[in-house]
TrEMBL record:
Keywords: Oxidoreductase. It comes from the Bacteria. The lineage of its organism: Bacteria, Bacillati, Bacillota, Bacilli, Bacillales. It comes from Oceanobacillus halophilus. Belongs to the short-chain dehydrogenases/reductases (SDR) family. Pfam families: adh_short_C2. The keyword Nuclease does not apply. This is Glucose 1-dehydrogenase.
């Protein structure tokens, strides 16, 4: 049987990269997918493709850094499908690898508001109906920047460390209420976020990206495969884990 039969998944950042890959895979595994993104065109395309492959999906516009936008998007999803079983907080942006002295306050606020506060907004909007059912799964997309320096700049690394802590606290507080929360810490993965960096990257950047045990950067589908594992019953005893999927980046 499909691994997510009868499940409803709400995925942020579903218009591109890892969010898109999860949307497609979860739909293939039987989930009804609420594909949420600030990029409406991107998410529409993904939903059309899911539907033409025989799946069920709904596109919703969301700005994860805006509470009323988040609540409207979650309500639209709930109106359509009546429940959300799986939440994947995937939306995020890079900070240009800026050290703190080169991080103006507006950049700091933007990164924290989208990459960290956005996770809090969306989780708080989805969680109550999960708790009511006594069942739900949350997957937060962190980064190797949740473990080590150099995967982003000051704001990005602070936000991703924040996601790791937030995920552990979610497990601690709501695991006993039937909520399974885990995070994935991807290494360098080819997506909309990194395509240009990988195409135009200096020898130094590409050396850093490729000098991992895997010897290459990853693909969005390789993150989605682990997200599926975390979304499904296969990971039934996993709570509060921050799972590196990084070609071995953090063991270098
Ligand atoms: N690509 C990598 O190498 C890498 C490595 C580690 C972690 N990550 C993390 O993976 C996640 C997914 O990124 P990706 O690599 O797939 O990049 P991506 O740019 O392909 O996708 C990110 C998506 O998030 C959406 N988004 C941005 N701001 C938003 C907002 N305010 N509200 C709603 N949606 C918004 C974008 O429109 C885009 O569709 C991010 O959290 C990123 O930090 C990426």
């Amino acid at each position: 049987m499909a691994k997510l039969h009868n499940k409803v998944a709400f995925i942020t950042g579903a218009g591109s990269g890892m969010g898109e890959a999860q949307a497609r895979l979860f739909a293939k595994e039987g989930a009804k997918v609420i594909a949420a993104d600030i990029n409406v065109e991107g998410v529409k395309k993904v939903v059309e493709q899911i539907k033409s492959a025989g799946g069920d999906a709904l596109e919703v516009e969301i700005d994860v850094s805006n509470k009323s936008s988040v609540e409207a998007a979650v309500n639209k999803g709930l109106q359509q499908y009546g429940k959300i079983d799986i939440l994947s907080n995937t939306a995020g942006i890079l900070d240009g690898y800026a050290p703190t002295l080169e991080t103006p306050e507006d950049l700091w606020d933007k990164i924290i508001n989208i990459n960290l506060k956005g996770v809090y907004y969306v989780t708080n909007a989805v969680l109550p109906q999960m708790i009511e059912k006594g069942q739900g799964t949350v997957i937060n997309i962190a980064s190797i920047a949740a473990f080590v320096a150099g995967g982003g700049g000051a704001a990005y690394t602070a936000a991703k460390h924040g996601i790791a802590g937030y995920t552990k606290q979610l497990s601690f507080d709501y695991g006993p209420k039937g909520i399974k929360a885990n995070a994935i810490a991807p290494g360098a993965v080819e997506t909309g976020m990194t395509k240009q960096i990988f195409e135009e990257g200096s020898a130094d950047v590409m050396e850093a990206v490729n000098s991992v045990p895997a010897g290459r950067y990853g693909q969005a589908e390789e993150i989605a495969n682990v997200a599926l594992f975390l979304a499904s019953e296969d990971s039934s005893f996993m709570h509060g884990a921050i799972v590196p999927v990084d070609g071995g980046w953090i063991v270098k």
